[in-house]
Amino acid sequence: MKLFAYLPPLPPFLFAALVVGGLASKALHIALHIHSLPFLYFVLYSPTLIIPDLLVIAFVRVLLHTPSPETKLQWVTTALGGLLSLIVWGASSIQFGFFMQTGAEVAWAASNSFLSDPAAMKILLSGISTVSAAATVLGLIAWLVHAKIYHWTGLGLQAIRDLLSGSYRARYTLLGVPSKSWMTTMDLRTVRRIAITVSICSSLLFLELTRPSVPYDHLSGALPLTLLDAFTKKSSTTEGCRQSPMKFPLWTDVKTGFMANSWSRPSWLPQNPPPGFSRYEHSPDERAEKDNPSWYLCNDNEPGFYNPKTDPLKISNLGGDIYGPLKAAFDAHSVEIDHVILLTLESGRKELFPMQQGTPMFDALLESHAKEDREEAIDRLVTMTPVSQMLTGEYATDSKGEKVNLTSANWQDPAEEGMGGLNVRGALTGSSLTFKSILGSHCGVHPLPVDLLEETGLEIYQPCLPQLFELFNTVKNPNPTPEILERDDSASEALKNPWKSVFMQSITDDYDRQDVLNENMGFKHKVVKSTLTSRKSKYRAKGQEINYFGFAETELKPYVRDLFEEAANNKTRMFLSHVTSTTHHPWNTPDDFAIEHYMGSQGSINHNLMNNYLNSARFVDNWLGDIMTMLDETGIANSTLVVIVGDHGQAFGEDNKDMTGTYENGHISNYRVPIVFRHPHMPRINIDANATSISIITTILDLLVQSHSLDARDSEMASSLLPDYQGQSLIRPFIPYIKDGHDTPTENDSDVEARSPRKKSHHKGGHHHTRYNWNFGIVNAGGSMVSITAAGLPYRLVLPLKEGFEYAFSDLNKDPGELHLVKSWTMADLVDDVLSKHGQSAAEWLEDAEQVGKWWVNEQRRIWGYREA
Question: What pLDDT is stored for residue 658 in this prediction?
């Protein structure tokens, strides 16, 4: 029985699915980048972009050729051709489905990590409807044209075979049907066809060899060849040697030197410190004797770990004065911090914390409403996040310019007028991937610029908050050994209590090794989804899961209350880290939560996703009110520091019509986040600083010391550790840059000088230099791009770290919503464009930013000890 007796049209259909899917995917691929391609170059080189696709098509057409009679070998080749066709059809459907959901392309190199993670698979499956729709459309088109495509391709390959072999009377065509060759004689017409064919092939070969590699090599990638990236996943390893340090590319007054030459064991370090303090515990020579050779370079005795003394990017403000109102409160001993809560808001955009007029996001939301409905829309939007208004002190105004009435909120701020703490405006996240961002806020470190959480296989190069509190606990043993110094007996009883660090979230901690990360950071107690579903749990979840990660935050309420009551009973000093999740895609809320309609119907964008996101943000704002209420009810609000930070933002079509979401998207809407230090007895201070979350741990330690909330021994340890962290303390004026070795900019510096890191003004006595506080933000998933800014400047560069991504520049003063990005495939072209559009100062900064960014990527890999396995 013949192989295709029952399904004779199957090979032509599968072949057509490959052709339609492959070419459609290529068209989408080119369309996403066409805006950055010079028109004439694109027209000239566009034929070369489909050469790989044509070769794949020809190869599969040969595989699907079914002569009569079939042979066993032909069965194998036909099966292989069919498999390749199905792979291309499926991959193309995924590409279109992913694009319809996010506006971006699939990065096949990262897909291997997703496929091996059950929680990540749920993310992928959430878009199954759009993928299925794309597959249906592509399959329908393939079905309609399968006969002609199969036939014409066969004729074309027949002609090429005849031309190359010289056989002008081929017995069979590639259709498997006997026919006469179209080249029966060598007449003038045939010669002309041969000449044209040779000319086209020669021209394509010439263009292929002479075209610029960037970006055309990336654009010419063809399915299924690009799918091979999915099988090239690289992971971290601690074996081998750390890479050599690079020389910092710009001027710096930092003196170089090796910590190995000046190392001494700190006097405050206990005999047996907790994990996280290995670089303080052992000298570099002692490290060399341990089973961790990665702390050294191969051919040098320079330690590989982080050394604040030789960090050219570190600018410390610890020598500066504390803000006057804060110092007065500290001197009066009116600020008591017995407990610390760190709340991380998933997709926590600053524009929503709180929602108020005057932001690019608010303006974009209003545009969805007809003009006659906008006053009502304003009044509805500004009452969306009342708790955030009270926590930040940024009170919104309604359509009549009056302060919004917040009496209907589920929490009312009991703090006196002018009190409430620090509110940072202008902060940016260190990563648009949640867990890499958490490394910054919890450990004061920059993340590793590679895809996903490879940090879990490495040692975090600074002690994290749970490890710091465990360090304090080591000298609070009621029966101290002779090696452990005595406690300060003059301290209050509360300061003698041990710290208890607890991590809570209502979703799974299995995604991308978060459970390993939490353990590495020092958390010994946790409440996560597995806790809420365990039969042994004290409080099992009562509601339904609201997304593919887990439950709504309100399921944690009894656990949070128990922890607060334990702290109120004066048994422990609490450190609670809590990550929200409802504001993560798909932005669902519990069934009993009333949905508001914040969006109108104007414009070509479907506003349903944004409306869901806004409602989820209102739900989380309400949950923050529940937390603050429980603090009040248990009586510990006046002794608790509440730190609130967004892990990253969330881009929608209302922000950026080209691309949505955080994945491979460097848009500014993914980076502006809130940072708040809430305490009812701290004066209300607004801080305008281009800071990042790496300043959180420095600020917490500084607050504990300056508010006299640590006993003498703990204060000594905290004060000694403070200078080692990279972030500045936000209870002191933030230093955006240093000029000529001074810690603060002078009042007479011109704007032009301040805007150019390498600007040299010819003053008497030499050149003028500026050293900036550079900030970096990794773009989800981590290894493709990095966002670069310099504090005090409006410029921003998104720097690609591998092929397939464009350089992007913006001036956030002129274009705060990044609606008019300057993009290019090469740095040279970008500098030229920026020079013509933004001037010499911006172009000079751009060149420096690229050099600093490349140095930083190498330095992060070095101090993390990262090597690819």
Answer: 78
* 263/295 Cα distance (integer angstroms): 15
Q: Bridge partners of 502?
A: 525, 576
- To which residue do tokens 């030789």 refer? 310
Which tens digits make up the pLDDT trace of 419-450? Answer: 999 999 999 999 999 999 999 999 999 999 99
Q: What are phi and psi of 319, to 5 degrees?
A: -85, -5
Task: Express each pLDDT in 582-627 by its tens digit.
Answer: 999 889 999 999 999 999 999 888 899 999 999 999 999 999 999 9
Task: Give yes or no for residue 756 having a pLDDT over 70.
Answer: no
Q: Where are the domains of the chain?
A: 10-231, 308-732, 751-868
Element (H, E) at 681: strand 675-683
Instruction: Give residue 2's region: left, alpha or beta (phi > 0; psi -120 to 50).
Output: beta
Count the neighbouring beta carbons within 10 Å of the beta carbon of residue 319.
Answer: 9
* 101 touches 606 (CB < 8 A): no
Q: Which helix (H) or strand (E) holds 109?
A: helix 108-115
Nearest by Cα to 550 from 535, 571, 528: 528
Task: Report the CATH number of the 308-732 domain.
Answer: 3.40.720.10
Q: How far is CA 635 from the centre of its chain?
A: 38
**Higher-confidence residue: 119 or 356?**
356
Instruction: Report whether the peptide linkage leading into residue 558 is cis, meaning its omega lies within 30 degrees of zero.
Output: no
Identify any residues that bridge with 152 across adjacent strands, giving them in sequence order: none
Which pTM value belongs to this model?
A: 0.85
The angle, 0 to 180 degrees and rounded to 10, between the axes of the packed helices 695-706 and 465-473 is 30
| Cβ pair 805, 664 in contact under 8 A | yes
